[in-house]
DNA sequence: TTGTAAGCGTTATCAG
DNA sequence: CTGATAACGCTTACAA
């Protein structure tokens, strides 16, 4: 019983040998067809193609993996506190590889672990994925990227700004869109706008804050530094920063929280002060996760195109392995635009 | 250059042959050690173990996959509209396989697609995972399970009630805990309690509604059928059902929404009627997703132990491949208990 | 343009 | 209990 016989039906899964025999060519020729080699006569190509169709042959990824020293999967590496973000990104990636033979392996890591690099190396050299998608914030770490290079594994870094050359990153334009939203608040007449910053040590909080400051500078309005509070992207930190800002004598008339979860905390802070949103206070967030439309009032926020970024990143990463279908999109595209979503917590018009 | 030489360092990744040579045994013996065969003398076992440690040898999963016709990964099959649920489950699974050599492949499917089974078969026979974790609601489908059996792939069904024999399922006790929570509302004096049902055609909504009805029956209170509204587990349906219930002449004094997202919709409905929660209306949900603590007021709900279920399911699924570490938990455990989480939207004491 | 032979790194068979 | 030998299904030299 040499090959993968099907227990119940007695059918045998066709292998490259069966195809070769039926087409009357060598297995190497079939292999060439599978790998889309250009060195084939149209006649043979046709014969092989017909035989494959007739047998319903599907190349065995495990065998290819062994021969090619490369598994037919892509990996998602992340240490992201926000589940919704990871999930939305994952959705985009899966959409991109839906019709391919690729699998998606998800690998959460702990960025605070001293074993981080060792663990990632173990994972990568074990699974040997075709490529790795690295999510923020660990996408900012050069040591992880160096590891990928050393292991000769393709990688794609995701970030709030371009973190690498166009072949290796996908980014959103956080700074520009925060600038836009802040400018809209200023144009409405707000002068005392609070800002809740994200965690220190990462890039996206820096970008978002920079956009906020840019808007003040460009509008010629002086920014009151004491209205900038520190958060860490979690709900509780938004609640706390919101309480601090709203407890001041001259409380702000609007608060920009640099993500939705903190914005949701700010809403709770407003309630605890008996303030009505948006009448007494306008609140805006960033991300447009499910939270944004489930809080009361619904949150005016920035749609962070994380799903679309996942799709683009996966496309770029695997394009070389899927030759052909790459025409639909631009391999050099790096930035996926964010946009403002106006809901109830702040009216912009 | 026969083997996997490391480009930069010139080091060579050790293979089973290197181990065999160093230990002075045949590769088959090393293979026996790797596969934890009991047919080995302690002396050889020791020699091999030492050689492996010395070389830092790690078996190549691709080669094993080819020989064993089985990939070293487990797959998660789902068509779940709730991202948070999928993600929490995933967290549990990853915790279970964290220290193993296994990868987790995520596979969302479309249960409404006529190609569903074909697609799943293509995926499974391609990737040949060690096992499949099937999430609700598709875990209820026997055709998918039959497919797994035919392909000889281990499976584990997740559900709101035991869907299979103990070796093949993990379940929560939705009916019992809804009974408990409803009883608590009745004990507080509520008589007109609205209920927002989940989508038709699935098991968990049936279980949750049954628990609700049980409580009325056991408490000897007559249930007003017109207070039972239909939802579909989405926010909007909760909003709509909530509006319908609250627009009645004799509006309910409490509403049990069968998941948090719909409960959140009910809260919005209450606001739109100018009702204050929990003073004018008490609201409870089910799931205890992040939403529950981010809405205002925070939601009294049932903690659905989806993460723990993921952990248990993965443990049970892979226990046979990871011999040894299985002592810590009970392989026959099926039910993971849910429990009530009291927050602000309903006070139970 | 095509085919032959020799791997890829592991496990199964079956004899010792 | 151990080991030679032949798979597993595909790809990469290297010829032809």
Description:
The structure is a homodimer of 349-residue chains. The first copy, chain A, has 349 residues and is α/β, with parallel strands linked by helices. Chain A folds into three domains: 16-59, 434 Repressor (Amino-terminal Domain), CATH 1.10.260.40; 66-173 and 306-336, Rossmann fold (3-Layer(aba) Sandwich), CATH 3.40.50.2300; 174-303, 3-Layer(aba) Sandwich (Rossmann fold). Chain A has 13 helices and twelve strands. A six-stranded parallel β-sheet of chain A has the order 2-1-3-4-5-11, with helices on both faces. A four-stranded parallel β-sheet of chain A has the order 7-6-8-9, with helices on both faces. In chain A, α7 (142-150) links the parallel β3 (129-134) and β4. In chain A, α1 packs across α2, α8 (174-187) runs parallel beside α9 (203-219) and α10 crosses α11 (260-272). Chain A is elongated, with a radius of gyration of 26 Å. The termini of chain A are far apart. Residues 1-10 of chain A have low confidence and may be disordered. The interface between A and B is large, with 50 and 51 residues. Chain B binds a DNA duplex (16 and 16 nucleotides) through residues 2-4, 15-17, 25-32, 34-35, 39-41, 44, 59-69.
